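Query structure, 313 tokens:
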């Protein structure tokens, strides 16, 4: 990400893909519709840009897709948090003081490339007064973000009554919920592997010896010189005699036999495993105050055993 010269050389970060998350009790406005003072669609909140030095949101990333104002639908722009207001009850973010002409003049947002020049251009377009590139006209590193454009309290202006109810002076009691997480360990079955059996048919050549018999008729003539007998005279007529020849030929037949079996069988084993994790709980610290303005000088709430990831807004 390009180094930004404002905010103690802070590198402004996008909420998406970071280790930060919206603080408990604060609305996550990502995905909310963004509308003008007349209720016309400008786009939606695509992301939030914050300063990691103080965990404060400084810009909304507004995606102008599906807008009703003839804006460039392929363009995303940065809107300072102090120029946005939450609707009284709907999940809408309003930009009552920003015109279509200003939206068209804003530079396109490029993730990871928010420079001081870009921020100065945004302030000039939105009427925040000229700021010299590199913040040379500023009295301190943080002064740029002290401008009303970055006053996140304005975001809740329309819902301030609900927020004031928590600290109203006419309340006689107030409380902080003490929350403690408990870890429950269960188990589920997951596939870790297996064995697959595949069968295929193969051929191989075999041979067997077999003894075959064949017949052959042979004609033999034997010279004889004797008087003909009565039996001979019986055959002394026309006729035919025959003798057939036979031969054996090989006959092949096949029969399948089961010669073995291959099977699958599972063995189940059990093991003990220790599961470790972290849980959070609320610890409340109190300190008396003596300020004449009757404002609390130091009242902090901290999380012990806090999980990875910070909260802000």
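Result returned for the query:
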């Amino acid at each position: 990400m390009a180094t930004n010269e404002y905010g103690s050389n802070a590198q402004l970060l996008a909420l998406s893909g970071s280790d930060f998350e919206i603080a408990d009790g604060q609305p996550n406005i990502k995905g909310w519709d963004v509308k003008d003072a007349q209720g016309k669609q400008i786009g939606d909140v695509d992301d939030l840009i914050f300063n990691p030095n103080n965990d404060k949101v400084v810009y909304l990333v507004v995606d102008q897709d599906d807008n009703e104002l003839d804006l460039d639908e392929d363009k995303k722009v940065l809107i300072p948090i102090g120029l946005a207001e939450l609707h009284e009850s709907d999940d809408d973010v309003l930009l009552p003081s920003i015109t279509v002409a200003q939206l068209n003049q804003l530079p396109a947002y490029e993730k990871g490339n928010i420079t001081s020049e870009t921020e100065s251009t945004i302030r000039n377009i939105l009427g925040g007064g000229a700021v010299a590139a590199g913040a040379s006209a500023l009295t301190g590193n943080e002064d740029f973000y002290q401008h009303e454009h970055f006053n996140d309290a304005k975001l809740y202006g329309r819902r301030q009554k609900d927020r004031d109810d928590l600290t109203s002076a006419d309340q006689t009691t107030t409380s902080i919920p003490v929350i403690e997480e408990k870890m429950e360990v269960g188990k589920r079955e997951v596939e870790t592997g297996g064995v697959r059996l595949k069968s295929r048919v193969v051929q191989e050549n075999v041979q067997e010896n077999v003894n075959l018999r064949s017949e052959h008729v042979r004609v033999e003539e034997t010279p004889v010189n004797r008087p003909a007998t009565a039996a001979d005279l019986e055959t002394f007529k026309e006729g035919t005699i025959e003798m057939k020849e036979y031969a054996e030929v090989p006959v092949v037949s096949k029969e399948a036999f089961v010669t073995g079996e291959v099977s699958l069988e599972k063995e189940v084993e059990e093991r003990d495993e220790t599961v470790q994790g972290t849980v959070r709980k609320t610890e409340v610290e109190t300190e008396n105050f003596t300020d004449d303005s009757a404002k609390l000088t130091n009242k902090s709430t901290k999380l012990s055993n806090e999980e990875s990831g910070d909260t802000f807004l």
